Queue: 4 jobs
Job 1
Amino acid sequence: MDIVLYILGIIAVIVGIALSIGLHELGHFLPAKRFGVRVKQFMIGFGPTVKSWRRGETEFGIKAIPLGGYILMTGMYPPEKKPARGLFSKWINEARALEREDISESDANRQFYALAPYKKLIIMLGGPVMNFFLGLLLIAIALSGIGTMQQSLSIQKVFACVDIQEDGGCLSDSPLSPAALAGIEAGDTFTAVNGNPVASWQEVIAGFNQNLGSPSQVELTRAGEKLELSVTPVFLERPIYGSDGKALLDDQGVPQTEFKPLLGVLLEPKNIPMPIGESLSYGLGATGATFGFILTLPQQVWAVTSSTFGLSERDQNGAVSIVGVGQIAGELSQSELPLESKIASLLMLLGALNLALFAFNLIPLLPLDGGHVLGAIYESLKRRFGRVFLKKDPGPIDTARTLHLAYGVWLVLIFVGVLLIMADLVNPITLG
């Protein structure tokens, strides 16, 4: 059964990635059609075509390697003014000739290169922006539609004493737990502390902290009936931790502490939906973190390389390939989490992937969308400068002349992808 769940998790994330890629390309396709460009192909994946069909003037299809997608627009490169020269001239001239060989007279006003720069900008930003909003939507569904596992106000178990042995029994000299002394039972639910209604366990703790070392009056519900009890928690001195999980230190370098109440209860976990504003805020924060991660990508690649060859430990929060993503999805699916938590976790994973696609595609290098965006901005500035100072329009930029740079970026991306896949096979990241 575990292997079936593992495979289902992998299938779910593959389908989710394919849909994300499809929507990314749709973000390019729709504005391109709106601006009159003829779109020759709309493909999900690379390599040999598995299945294709034609709708109108566009061939839609699925290819064998599900690691991306593309739309093929007419007239990506302008007609050459003069043949390219130099080391890469053959590539450039052949690519231009191949790309323009099926252009007909009806395409005269339907070519990408001839669009105004702002239209090119809209088309090329359409894909990443689609991933951005899809990522926020998936995260919002996971956090606000389903919720996260949190401590509820209901008691799952009451421990008999303060000090518990490994087998669950009490030490001979251990005092009874405050909950057991007060008469709290499994199934009870806290509703108020010291007369103040509570909506979270943090509010229960805050209520006990107001009566440090003294009895507190608690209101509970038991089998639908209200109940009032007096409980005196045991207060233990605990270190204070920051958001990074490290203990906070004072000016002398001594760990800061605070007193926290101990009742001797195990709270029942519950999926609690997060307010939509907090979900969106989390998504925006994750987007910023993704941009920060991309800025450190060279260090991340080196860290993965080092761990693959046994020179260091694998960073559990480091870069992964699509293989690693599938492994994580499989582990989530076969975990002991409740079904709704598994669904929420997979949605969070797909949401994070979409935010990564958004951020990664904005890297200003061809053949990524960010490279075309940078080209459109440069063309706009160049044309404005020409009209103002040279009194003429210099025309559209010729991206065909940057093909050697695009090929170089492709080689780097392929190398990094192979390296990450090898790392995920040799030294995978696990949830354990």
Job 2
Amino acid sequence: MTVDYYAVLGIKKGASAEEIKKAYRKKALLYHPDRNPGDKAAETEFKKVSEAYAVLSDPEKRRQYDTYGSQAFGNKFSQEDIFRNFDFQSILREFGYRGGFGGKSTSRRVDPFADLFGGFRQTRQTPRPRRGDDVDYNLEITLEEAFGGVEKRISLRGPDRSDKILVKVPPGITTGQKLRIPGKGGEGSFGGQSGDVFITIRVKPHERFAREGDDLTVQHTISYSQAVLGTSIDVPTIDGEMKRIKIPPGTQPNTRIRLKGHGMPRFKGSGRGDAFVRLNIEVPKKITDKQEKLIKRLAEEGL
């Protein structure tokens, strides 16, 4: 739940420790249960201002709250954590409270805070270690970088940090896969471990190769006569080399020719996928008079 502790106490975010204490004293005495017997609304407000003071009066808790915001703080700190080491009795005695108001003693409630806070008693225990938050980062790489693997240096920025870390991207990685960098996430509190960084990979579309799993497809256009008669062509591979392949006579449009083992490396495995050459047959939009006569003669032959 999102709670603005500064607003609860009616102070600004940059308030000093003395201003925080003064604001709490005023509101705590206003809403204290001894002054408002049976008033549930006042009891609720007393809980709110006490929780706000418990956080903002503790330098470490206040730093965590200011750094990560109220939502993240609420996820990391239970109410028991918030009120640990917070001694209501001594604090209110410091404000002039002596078991009652106006200098009078009261036997109505031996511990007026036990009922309000579920019986939690203030002790001088060491706060429990809290693990830091995990950090998500999106990293875009090229298909060639995904093929060969790559090292990328990325910058992580936060409210109180700016780190550069080296990310080793293994060969064969694909869009949507994640890499974990342990211990490089949000800083832990009270001796807790730091969180992790999770790198989500996005492989940019390639101008020539289409990827499907570990396989690659490249488009290549041949002429009508090459499709009919057969030929040999050179096609690029993701390795950066050219591979010569044979086109058999009578090749049809959209025929795929397989180049075994010329695809992407298998991520964290052995071997590679395949490459495929998809053949398109070009139909010329313009022909010469001589070509037209030849085609007409072929048409007369039933071709």
Job 3
Amino acid sequence: MSADFVVFTDGASKGNPGPGGWGVVIAFSLGLSAEGLDEKVIEIGGKADHTTNNRMELTAAIKALEKVNQLSESSKPQALSPKLILYSDSSYLINGITKWVHGWKKNGWRTATKKDVENQDLWEKLAELTTGFLIEWKRVAGHADTPGNARADEIASAFAEGAAPKLFLGSRSDYKINVNEIGTGKNSQKSGSRNRGVAYSYVSMVNKEILTHKTWKECEARVKGKRGARYKKSFSQEDERCIIEDFSK
């Protein structure tokens, strides 16, 4: 999909929960100027005193859509329904907004195991903001070879650490980062990124009850011979959370 806006978002917290920050990079075109296509880049970010990484990931996406909505009002007339590609390294965000949120809303913001959906306030706000946009949600590997994502993380981390990063606003030609470069993830070094050789945990569900296990032996003992049982290996804390959310749908 060709896009009017290309967006990179990231969130961070120091302590999880702890001080947090969010960062956004938006590349867009406002139409034709005397010199041709007026291509811009804008960076935004912010902080929270006590929060979690997932809340910051959701906040970054919310702030991005709010800003895009503001920018699109002054954009070219044909962009009445702005086309947007949003890149994030958060499986929680991408899976939640493209898969889980529909079931949550249908079930009155309860999971399949009858638990309240975490961060419901932010999910509701994000879902509301998506109306009126044509959005393609794409996950990229954290801190790999996607410069826009790496920059969004720098902004988020700086705010989480109490700094005030200098945020860019200007022509894309003056921006030092190539927002068109989307990495494959082969060089990812983000802490918590998946290591396919080592399991972080195992998640099992029997009779709709979800448990986590540190060893496969423990997980196997629970699911073996149980009709309808589900289980899956996770490779990070975020991966574990996503599996639990997926099982809870």
Job 4
Amino acid sequence: MTDSGSFPINRVLITGGAGFIGAHLAQRLIADGIEVVALDNLNDYYDPQLKRDRMAALTQGPLFTHVNLDLADREGVAALFRAQRFEVVVNLAAQAGVRYSLVNPHAYVDTNLVGFVNILEGCRHSGVGHLVYASSSSVYGANTRMPFSVHDNVDHPVSLYAASKKANELMAHTYSHLFGLPTTGLRFFTVYGPWGRPDMALFLFTRAILANQPIEVFNNGDMERDFTYIDDIVEGVYRVIHRVPGGDPSWNGDHPDPASSAAPYRLYNIGNNNKEKLLRYIEVLEKCLGRKAEMNMLPMQPGDVRATYADVDDLVRDFDYRPGTTLEVGIAAFVDWYRKYFRL
């Protein structure tokens, strides 16, 4: 990787700063003495109180500021960039969820497309030194060659959510090419852990098992995921923030590498590099809870994929980092948090 090196970071804008990954990342940056401005509109896709509680628990102190603003508010976002200078922007705000994209597609356009353009424009006009943004393992779509590599073509998404994340990567490259804006896209793989989202499997399974209700297991349990613990994701993002990409002098338009460019643009997977069977995930959760799950076996859901598995060789090469938290450790930490938070 050719890069522009590191540079002093005093203030970071995190969009989705009250979200699962955003609040944990803010905590890490604040611990380093870096000021964090968290943009989050606290929408009701899931309980806004959980978002408020995340911020209260993880991000207290004078170095943290919450800005209640919708990413799709063009003038509001522009005004924020005019009012404050950010060395780095980390775009984690998104309308998440594959299945919800079948129900409310316009939410994905408003946040993931319109909102992302607003961020790109803000970075362009205010001289931001590095834009790091969340992509997703969902961009691999119909790909079946494992493990998924950032060097593979990903032109066959199977959900609007995935298409919107692929669009983010294309939009970022355009701004890197036209305006020299350094951008790094991170494809996250099934993030889980304390303070996680209530629409994610671990949260849903835990709530149902403790309530003596059946859990919904799709594709009759024949699913595999590269489950990645939240601390591993944050460590990866933290390292990426501090290293600004430069143009790749070996990039060749005759044989274009999707993961790099002659422009200051890079893509990386952040995953555990270890696909786990969904039924084993449930088994570990059962042990942590001390209860057996009643499973309601269901067919595959539209827009879903059977397996994900991250190739993280580029992450290891460029950042000397490989996620590695085991399911036993990660799920136990989530269960401990869940019982404390809900006083169970």
